[in-house]
Amino acid sequence: xxxxxxxxxxxxxxxxxxxxxxxxxxxxxxxxxxxxxxxxxxxxxxxxxxxxxxxxxxxxxxxxxxxxxxxxxxxxxxxxxxxxxxxxxxxxxxxxxxxxxxxxxxxxxxxxxxxxxxxxxxxxxxxxxxxxxxxxxxxxxxxxxxxxxxxxxxxxxxxxxxxxxxxxxxxxxxxxxxxxxxxxxxxxxxxxxxxxxxxxxxxxxxxxxxxxxxxxxxxxxxxxxxxxxxxxxxxxxxxxxxxxxxxxxxxxxxxxxxxxxxxxxxxxxxxxxxxxxxxxxxxxxxxxxxxxxxxxxxxxxxxxxxxxxxxxxxxxxxxxxx
Length: 322
Hints:
Quinone Oxidoreductase, Chain A, domain 1; Rossmann fold; 2 domains; six-stranded parallel sheet; 11 helices; globular
């Protein structure tokens, strides 16, 4: 089968498309022929060896995708030919993957395989952030940084499905339009976002800040929070890890909350099934929409990663595997 492998830790140019051995079928795992696979910021970090988990080379990148079941254990609840999304921690940029039971998730008919290929990482991370870590409540307001990106658009859609209002922070008018198309209640530009967020909430502030960017905007994120507000830290795509003076937390009774979904599911793998059980009704009803990703061929995987590093991508990015 074909796969995209990282052969040198020199950035996206270290990727190569080639043939790798097909998988050996086993009775205890779900084998899925993938249609497409998601591309995310950790994949970009992997290409330079700067992610917290460094794999030996050559390795297959990617951890999510969607396709059709080839085979599954009899007690898995899955059958051959069934459409599923997968979390494939051993690499998803290949045409076939083998995953444990509980890491393949049945899809409703109204969700395409291309859309589902980039669903797991972003949407389950955001669900964990808002529901498990922030304990969000319907009617609250969430300020979303990087709102036109993959995590950002996932947050806008999921927040709408959960009954939350959103303030989408973007860098330009084009990305503001993308955020609006993805359900943002309000859009504001990065410059002056704190003051605009306070204006939009009548001076009260937002209840939750969802921040995958980090960098020098973090202090103003804290200042934009209402009393009892929560700042959710998902990552640092801006390149700098901010620090916080903890007296700010005392003054407004606010919290800074880490969101390490990957680490959490490694310790609590059953949580994946709980998340899917919560999200599947929203997907099936259409309350939670998944936009189609920007799709690249396998041979253009370096360009897919460059679109993330150059912040040119809007929404989710994925690789077509067939």
